[in-house]
Amino acid sequence: MSTDTDADPETTSAATSRQGDGARTGGGIDLKRVSLYAVVAVMAAFYLAPLWTGLVTAFKTQDAFFGTTPLAPALPGTEGFTVRPWLEAWAALLPGIVNSLWFTVPAAVLSALLGSLAAYGLTNVDWRGQVALLVPFVAGVFIPYQSVLVPLTQFWNWFPLPVGGLAELAITHVAYGVPICTVLFRGYYLTLDEEMLEAARLDGASIYRIYLRIVLPLSKPMFAVALIYQFTNIWNDLLFALVLAPPNAPPVTIALNQFKGSMVNQYNLQMAGAFIAALPTLIIYVLFGEQFARGVAGET
Amino acid sequence: MSSLTLDHVTKIYDDDGEDVVAVDDVSLEIRDGEFLVLVGPSGCGKSTTLRMVAGLESVTSGEIRLGETAIDDRKPQDRNIAMVFQSYALYPHMTVRENMRFGLEESTDLGDDGIDDRVEDSAGLLGITELLERRPEELSGGQQQRVALGRAIVRDPEVFLMDEPLSNLDAKLRSQMRTELQRLQEDLDVTTMYVTHDQTEAMTMGDRIAILDGGRLQQVGTPLECYHEPANQFVAGFIGEPSMNFFPVERDGDVLRGDGFDYPLPPEVVDRIAAGAGDDLTLSVRPEAIAVADGPGERRFETTVDVVEPMGDENNVYLQFPGIDGTFVAVVDGYERVERGDTVTVEFPADRIHLFDRATGEAVLDRSLTRETAETETGRTI
Amino acid sequence: MLRLIRSLVERARRERQQGGHRQDGEDRVRTDGGTVDPAVGSRSRGERAAATVRTATEGEFLRSAVFWLPPLLLTGLFVYGAIGWNVVISLTDWNGLGDPEYASFDVEMYARMLSDATFLAAARNTVALLVAFTVVTLLLGLFLAILVDRGIRFEGVFRTVYLLPMSLSFVVTAIFWAWVYNFENGLLNELFRAVGANFLVQGWISDPQFKLAAVVFALVWQFSGYAMVVYLAGLQSIPTDQFEAARVDGAGTVKLYLRVIIPQLRASTTSAAVVLMVFALKAFDFLFVLFGTNLGKSVDILAVMMYREAFGSGNWAYGSAIATVLFLMALSVIGPYLYYQYRRGDL
Known about the structure:
heterotrimer, A: MetI-like fold, 2 domains, 72% helix, globular, disordered N terminus, B: alpha+beta, Rossmann fold, CATH 2.40.50.140, 6-stranded mixed β-sheet, 6-stranded antiparallel β-sheet, 10 helices, elongated, disordered C terminus
């Protein structure tokens, strides 16, 4: 189920031989390749344009962004340039960022760990009925949050956690993260050498010891995938936050939405706020894009 | 050390509600220190048998005993058995040293020093001392194979189980490891059960071999017993390379009437045919028993050469009876110049033929076997 | 060499004699941890074998439960328990403050939907969004995947750029797109003005005519990278031989893709389509940030209407009923998909 997009030598060579009709004649310019690169670049511009216009706007004064085109940057030192929107947005959003970190990190770690455990129990320990138990996990990946919102609020009203609403939000996210993490880890565990696990059994290790000493250390790359995917998902969520987060400790998505609402037409502030709120996931994405792609593809 | 006994062991799988018999009532004793090779075509149940001994498969009925103790209800880790896997199954995140330590750490109370001593001794034994700090991915196939062996040896088990351990090596390394494994097993004197589909491995390595087909044990015996006195047509065809020739014949008193030839039986051979044997038989003769004759005579036949496979010191010559489609194979000396289309007279010596009942496949006549013939043919003592 | 072997064997022998957990000689009694049922030996072979099989599987079942039971309970309670509870609530008349009365159950809420013009409009919009969004995203994703798979330089960089929006929160992307769609100064209208296409200058997110299309366009922008990743994995699993064989056969590039490659991407299309459709059903964040809960009839969808009814107006039972409809719609997408996966042995 998980898909590996690693560029191994195989695919690289495959890609080379897929270079269109490959007729690159000597030093001549191949029109087909040129147009291919033109299309690739135009598409890149399409995906970056909304971010670019947001970025340049965030460095402009109110007058400047109403007066200039939304693609042109205001250069430092010129009249329309300012960093004030960033400072203001940062001050407004910092509490939300802290709140989000408080529940996102534990929830991501816990859901990855539970997903790994469930996948191991349902994949590498041999007993009948594994597939039957797998179905609720796989189906759980696709459940619309809406179909549980009302009961969830009821539930947490009846059994509020003494440590506060962010913990309730964290547990809810863990429950909804376990299915996708299980699917991700299962896809990985299915590729483990079965003989290796049998060798460990013959070496005298119980299934617990095998998990601790063999499977868990070998799961590191998958933990990277699951953690990155879960962190991004939970950090970016708005719906659960709207329903479950305590009003006095709003996560960053709610804080950003409120910020947007209170800064009507102040697009420079809104854009700076959007970038600040997205910063953790952006950094992770730039550093671990490959793992993120694997997590994303793992849903299928 | 102790012997390993399989007592009426049966394995039935449930495949979507249908029972599939993978291993059918196999009884077998592997003596203390013996090297027994379990051989058969793929799907014959040999790996399942091995895995039942290891405890990786449950036993449907029957009993497996180590010495006098039944072990089939024990967990794999409690059987004191070590296994070498086809894929080597090394732990990729551990160094060779950690790979070898793992079993001792999990299954014994040995201290750190004790474990290190054992690991280093075993590594020295296998000549992998300088590999101890490397990871499996840095090793060649042959080196990985040694580490897999080392991981089994270091635990000093009562029984070694080996599941096609050499099949991932290239041909040259394989024959080298074959001798080495044999020597090692002799030195360590550990009861060993070795599974392979390769009859050459079976013949060269085993103290005894057990041949399985369709989940049933066909024959257990020394390699030469199985070669010279195959219990049935399956064993006869499976053991030996190139394969034994089979000719369907009708017995008509002292003559076997086949397709394109008649084979008269001398009285001393007729006397040895099992009592109660029917008349629908299979005449069998090994390619290496077929002799090129210099002229016509009794039990000599004129044949046409179809294909010649030069092997260097020998030629595998595929021959045809005139006007008959099928070919049979004879091994002739490499110096003998034969070519496609040549006419060759060959003899099936009367003391070298086997007869099998065509209905049951059971042997009704073995070749006559004297100590001399066996020794001169194989260069080995039996 | 031989000396080493001897010392090894010797040591092993010594340990066996001294070691507490090991047995010595022939008299083998199990002392190494496990327990032996004394009755085992006295039972007949058949019984014993059956018992062995049963204890083996039961043992594995129980031991493995440590791993899967806690996650299963958590997910079972919060996901499946909550879905069931939601259905129960949808059968009550609960609204306003206070707790639901689980006294009388009826399907009144579901009957109400059929005569509720808002619901019907939202349902229609949901289906329109689902179809348009899924189809366009798949096509664009396939196009991107083929582009990136053509052996271009900096493949990784472009792949990263195309997938980038997927890593952003809908709150963030909604803010960006609100600015892009801005009537006076937004990028889109500015571009149209720059090329003189003034008739295309529109109030993209204020004019009811364009709202839904604008939302679909922005969501396609965000999700096409995902479809690309799925297709790329499918493309790269197709052996290079096939590209070469088709070339030897003289097939042009377009024909190669249409006749040889794309038909083999059916599995990728199916799984990506399922994920996209289910997303379209639950899309909430983006619309909520862009329009709030009262987004107008032209772009109202069930996912937002459910939230508005329950958490805005306190019509809990009605909101639950809409949520149940959403769940059933999602089920009708994933049910066949899971069955298909099961049949292919992919579960």
